[in-house]
Design brief:
The chain has 405 residues and is α+β, with helices and mostly antiparallel strands. 27% of the residues lie in helices and 31% in strands.
């Protein structure tokens, strides 16, 4: 039998080893490249987001790339300047689905008690602009409706409540009026001028706070004289006002006393004058002043997280002239109502959103995205508070007393 064949084992040559190593390195490099590409793609996709931007009260959806609010606004071609209100701030990070508020600043010509001035405001309505000036529009006469929008070129005329010191008939009457002229102020206070009476200030002059008006009665040869009757002042404690605050709830009005005299004359000169009858023909109206008793909110954390609903609320409240004390009340109020949750819903009553509007659809008066946009809800809520309670502290006090606001 032929001898069996001996298997021949061929050793790997250097060439074969090099080929396998090259192939492994090539595959590894390709895998690393794919990983880098995938990572870069993921990061790139992460930069893309869709946000809702409320621009001057109008909701706009922006789909763009960016890490911060400023980058997203720039990508969406929404221009902002130093005088504009942006919440959250331009340097704050922004996530997909975020809500951003932009209020563009504008110059507003205002005439307050006859004095012209120009101010910058981010307000959308006349009422917001007046509050931003630190004026209480419920104690002022406005040239436009509180809910009216601000039109460029228009002049907003405001006549604030002021105290007028009226010296008449041997007495001083301190009355309040929102009238724009001395004539209007005297009418509000209830002074009746007789023919020939003189005043120390022209009747058509602008009424200013603290103005002193001296009335000199004309000499009369008649039998009947009218005189002003001062009004009384009554103070009423009000737990909805911050302690130390005084607010005239009912302006006082002077009454009228009519006195009839009998006179005796000699040679055309009156030598005797006797009162025949004297009666108050117009009763004075007591001036009612509310005196605040509510202590300022204490121990309330008013530091807010950037980009949160509270951050937006703080900035929108500040734009109305409400400081940290009022914001502290607002925090407590809406913590109680909704926990500042945009989708908070009371299933029994139907109240909805951060301010718990009832029904929630009322907030559509601000914007159509009232179900999801905290800026829309907060704007509506602040309008409601200003119109019904004047301030957040007033609303918070009412909520404590009644359980709702």
């Amino acid at each position: 039998m032929p001898a069996p064949e001996t298997p021949v084992v061929l050793a790997s040559s250097p060439t074969h080893r090099t080929t396998r190593r090259s192939r492994a390195l090539r595959y590894g490099a390709q895998g690393l490249a794919l990983a880098l590409v995938a990572g870069a793609t993921t990061a790139f996709v992460g930069l893309h987001k869709t946000v809702t931007v409320e621009v001057d009260g109008t909701a706009v959806e922006v789909s763009a790339f960016g890490r911060t609010v400023g980058q997203v606004l720039a990508a969406g071609d929404i221009q902002v300047g130093d005088r504009d209100l942006v919440a959250p701030g331009l340097d704050e990070p922004v996530g997909d689905g975020a809500q951003i508020v932009v209020r563009h600043g504008r110059e507003l010509d205002v005439q307050v008690d006859g004095q012209d001035r120009t101010v910058w405001t981010t307000a959308l309505t006349v009422g917001e602009a007046v509050e931003g000036l630190g004026l209480r529009d419920d104690q002022a006469l406005l040239s436009a409706s509180r809910s009216a929008g601000l039109e460029r070129g228009d002049v907003l005329r405001v006549s604030t409540q002021k105290t007028i010191h009226l010296a008449v008939d041997g007495q001083v009457i301190d009355g309040v009026s929102s009238g724009g002229t001395v004539r209007d102020a005297l009418r509000d206070i209830g002074l009746v001028l007789n023919e020939g009476d003189r005043v120390s200030v022209p009747l058509d002059a602008t009424a200013t706070d603290g103005l002193v008006v001296l009335v000199t009665r004309a000499a009369t040869a008649g039998e009947t004289v009218t005189e002003a009757v001062p009004f009384e002042e009554q103070e009423v404690e009000d737990p909805t006002l911050v302690k130390g605050t005084r607010k005239v709830a009912t302006p006082g009005r002077a009454g009228v006393r009519t006195t009839t005299y009998s006179t005796a004359t000699v040679g055309g000169t009156v030598v005797d004058r006797q009162v025949v009858a004297s009666a108050v023909t117009v009763e004075p109206v007591t001036q009612v002043v509310k005196v605040g008793t509510m202590e300022l909110a204490s121990g309330v954390d008013i530091s807010v997280s950037p980009g949160s609903a509270q951050d937006i609320g703080k900035q929108l409240a500040a734009a109305r002239g409400w400081g940290d004390d009022q914001f502290a009340c607002l925090v407590q109020l809406w913590n109680k109502e909704s926990g500042w949750r945009v989708n908070a819903e009371n299933r029994s009553s139907g109240a909805y959103g951060i301010p718990q509007a009832l029904p929630g659809s009322k907030m559509a008066s601000v914007a159509a995205d009232w179900r999801t946009n905290p800026a829309t809800q907060i704007t509506w809520g602040l309008n409601y508070i200003a119109g019904r309670y004047s301030t957040p502290c007033g609303a918070w006090s009412a909520s404590q007393a009644k359980g709702w606001y």
